[in-house]
Amino acid sequence: MADSFTLPLRHIHEKRERPDTLPVEIAQINSQWGSFRDVNEEVLRQKMAEEADKDGVSEEDESDEDATDLDSTERLEQLYKRRTEITEFAMKAHMETLFALDFVSLLLSKQLPRQAETSISPYLKQIAPLGSLHAEVVNPPPKPASAAKDISVVSRGWRIQNFKAAANKLLQAASRLETEVAAETRYWNEVLAIKDKGWGICRSPRNGRNLAVQYGFLESTPIFRDRGLAPLHRAQDGSLHLDEGVVPSKASYVRVRVIQDGRLVGYSKPTRSALDGGDTIESRIRQARDTLFEEELFHELVREARAIASFGVTTRENLIEVPGSDDLEILLDLVDADEVQPEDGITRQGTTLAQGIGHAIGILLAYAHRQNLRRRSQIPPPLTPKKPSIPEYQLIRPVLTYIKHISDVRWVQSLLKDLFGVLQSAKLNPPAYTTKSFSIGKQAPAAHLPAVEAFVGQFLAPFESTFSGKILTPRGSFSIAVRTSLSSPPFGTSFNVSFNSPMYPDFKSPGHVSQRQEVEAAITHLLLLDVVFAIASNEPAKPKDDRDAQANRAWDPIYPQHGELLLSPSSPNSFKRRKMKVALSRDELSVEVYKVHCIDGTGRGNREKRDTKSTPSTWSSSAASPDQPSLMEFVTTELSRS
Amino acid sequence: MHEQSLFASVPVHQHHELLQQLAGLTAMQPRHCLERRLIFKAFRKPGLAGRTGASQDLQQGDLQRLNKMLNGNLYYTQVIGSVSEQDFGSTAQIDQDTQMAGTDNAERDGSPSSSYDYERQSWRLEFRDIPEAGTRSAVTSRFMSSAALPRGDVVQAMNAWGYNFVTEYVVEGDMFVHNGIAIFLHRVLHYPDGGDSNLPRQQLPALKDMTLLEKSGSYVLQAFIIVQDGSNQETMKTASQHLFGLREQLKPAVLLEQADRLSLDTRAK
Taking the C-alpha atoms of A266, A271, A275 and A278 in order, what is their torsion angle to the nearest 10 degrees? Predict the structure, then answer.
């Protein structure tokens, strides 16, 4: 029932029971403007023109006055004149007031002589004795009925007018209240909608009457943490809007660009297209959050880049250049999310790398935030005058470690592939090697850590990859461990090359080396020794009985480290010996046969002549032809030739 | 090192609310702590006090210092070991006397969750002096020191250093950290079987069997900050400013105030 209850506030216009409105008005016009008989178009036009003239003239007069009154002396005179006029007026008014005062005082002196005496002028006191004037109320003559009616009509009119004004005010207030309620409802609904989406709403610390939304990260550096709170203002219509002063106006992101051989091959796109969600308050908050995160990320990247300048990382005003490896360069900068990017020369691989790096540094920053919380939750260390410095987060270093590591691993892979390819082309059939990439350095499993943190924590540890395999020599093996670390010394990649070659016990493993050339040299050398051993241990497949003597002969690895083998002469009194030289490189395996004249086969220069009967043979993985004889066939033919 | 602290009493009905308020203030989740606390009392070793003669090799200053050390006040100290909830009420009674050292490991691996191993308990020694008298500041300030102890049985080592085991109790509570201040909301639990043993317990009873020291179950809120160098007035002032800041922030919830100095007296009489 209460809903339907309405109260009319406006005065209800009752039908006027006065049919004489028109005659009254006609009478009024008659008395004001004269008879209707004189009114025609001309008169009216004249009147209008007159009125227009009057307005124009007065305006012109004023302007004329302004123009002519430029003379200063005249102005001064006028000023004096006006001043005297004003003083005269004031004097007159003063006089009249005094007369009135005297009059009232004299009148009052009948009743209150003591009081009236103080305000009565001395002159009047002299000429008129106190109390000589008296006033009395006389009954006014009764007003005529018409006047009484007029008064009642006027007062009724006043009342109606006042009622009307009051009603208007009330109705205005009601409608204002209605819009206010609608606005408030909308405001609170939107606040609740934001809260339901999981954003933290709290009272604004600066202005206690406002609400604020928390979108920042509590574990950030204080300057970014404090920016993570924006007041929610209420617009006139009740819609929410974020405080423009705090919220970054434009969406920006850390762009990762990958430069390969001086050409841009990939860049990262903004992780979340902040603007595609329309202009809702939620998307604004999301954009603010993302931009704040990206700004903090860039801040921390610059901070770290300065600390690791020794790795060749350079910073400019708004750009970080990270030299990777193999002519790969990473550029990091903070740009607007809607910046137009060039599209030519972009490869899929480069884009994948750039996107991967973009995601990785974001994840690493989030990980650093968690570490901050962990550190903050510990019992604080004793207070000292020196402020503890916050270490730089590890953002670039893990990424750079990964790039360096993968490059070195690929290099080792290609080296082994080339070398084994060469051996296979010579039909030596080396055993396969195994690769164990990215075996993370051993860490004690921390049970109390959440899985996510333990997982990301692995990427901060040094990377390690191992290649191991067997060689042709029985019980022989090799292993190359590639270890890359940029967070703890020794910085960079180190290769741990170790051999197990029972045939050459003097041949020691080189151990830790840091140069690729050294690794290549060591592995090539090992395989050369292996090839020499294989040749030396090669038995002709079917030794014939009549060539027993020859069959017993074999290539003797005389200087295996030089790849030299010696074949003793067939007849004991001959000094001519044959020497085979084996050379192995990444590209080819070559074997040449020489004739030497000295007994130990060390002959060089004149004493060593190329055997004209046999042609030097070369195997390479690229130019392998199926009809080329294998190394062992070559060796056997050489053996039989002598 | 110096410890500055403020205390407040928190009735049990306010406990949950205060935990939430503190979590909001410090922006972290409470860290639940359970600690065994062993009380040791220093004793004067016979024959050491009042050393006379054979002191020609000592300088006057050294001698004075030595005498002061030997004849000065004796203090109670605490040995604190962190335990977890699983350590309480372990039913697997391992007979320490009959168990061989070699089988110990296997036993532990078999039932790691239900057994509390006294031999592997880590300890730390915490010393607190009586709060300084006559300080103008409105915080309780006292000299303190902390040191890690070897795992396992500490009584022998403590005896060798001149301390006798007196009693032990358990403290349960939640720890917060805010602005360099550690906020510890805790209460004291007693063992159900009283403290007639003159050695620390090898096994812990079930947590629910522990009795409260304060029967109403109210908590103590202690906010403390440790200063490395107590003689540095600047840092001491900073520390108390931090505490006052916290007191202002917590004023609507609890009233932090200085503790009665004599109630924190650790001197052995």
Answer: 130
Note the ipTM here.
Answer: 0.78
Q: Are residues A493 and A420 in the same domain?
A: yes
- The phi, psi pair for B44, rounded to 5°, reads -85, 120
Give which of A294, A295, A256, A257 is closest to A272, Cα–Cα. A294
Q: Is residue B97 part of a domain?
A: no
Report yes or no: B234 at the A interface, CB cutoff 8 Å.
yes
Helices (DSSP H) in A435-565: which residue ranges? Answer: 451-458, 516-536, 548-552
- A230 in any annotated domain: no
Please check the confidence at residue A1 and state whether its pLDDT lies above 50.
Answer: no
Q: Is residue B115 part of a domain?
A: yes
pLDDT digits (tens, 9 = 90+) for A463-512: 888 888 888 777 788 888 888 888 777 788 888 888 887 777 777 777 88
- Domain co-membership, A303 together with A405: no
* Distance of residue A630 Cα from the nearest chain B Cα, in angstroms: 60
Contacts with A373 from chain B: Cβ below 8 Å: 28
Listed in sequence order, the DSSP H helices in A378-469 are 396-425, 451-458
Put simply, the answer to whether A376 touches B177 (Cβ < 8 Å) is: yes
| Host domain of residue A624 | 534-541+549-641
Residues A371 and A435 in one domain: no
Helix (H) / strand (E) element for A307: namely helix A281-307
For residue A394, what are the contacts with CB-CB under 8 A and spacing of at least 6? A304, A364, A368, A460, A487
The A residues from 370 to 389 touching B (CB cutoff 8 Å) are: 373, 376-385
For residue B176, the chain A residue with the least C-alpha distance is: A377
Placement of tokens 């909830």 in the chain? B85
Q: Total structural domains in chain A?
A: 4
Residues B6, B247 contacting (CB under 8 angstroms): yes
pLDDT of residue A2: 46
Single-letter code of the amino acid located at A217: F
Return phi, psi of residue B82, to 5°: -80, 135
Residue A516 CA, chain-centre distance (Å), reads 39
Residue B99 within a domain = no
A405 and A373 together in one domain: no
Looking at the fold, whether A298 and A373 belong to one and the same domain comes out as yes
pLDDT digits (tens, 9 = 90+) for A339-371: 777 777 788 888 899 999 999 999 999 999 998
A13 is a domain residue: no
Shared-domain flag, residues A358 and A402: no
Neighbours of A509 (CB within 10 A): 15
Do A383 and B177 make contact, defined as CB atoms within 8 angstroms? no
Asked whether residue A71 is domain-assigned, the answer is no
* Count of structural domains within chain B: 1
Question: Do residues A361 and A406 both lie within one domain?
Answer: no
Which residue segment(s) compose the domain that B252 sits in?
2-49+58-91+107-268
Quote the CA–CA distance of A404 and A481 in Å, as a whole number.
14
Please give the average per-residue pLDDT across B157-182, as a whole number: 90
- Is B102 among the domain residues? no
Say whether B226 and A385 touch across the interface (CB within 8 A): no
Are residue A486 and residue A597 in the same domain, yes or no?
no
Q: Which residues of A touch B232 (CB under 8 A)?
A: 385
Q: Which CATH number covers residue B38?
A: 2.40.320.10
> Which one is predicted more confidently, A177 or A242?
A177
- What's the rounded Cα separation, in Å, for the pair A242 and B208? 51
Q: Is the pTM of this model over 0.80?
A: no
Per-residue pLDDT, averaged over A287-297, amounts to: 88
The 10s digit of each residue's pLDDT in A408-447 is: 888 888 988 888 888 888 777 777 778 877 766 555 555 6
For residue A47, is it within any domain?
no
d(CA B13, CA B48): 52
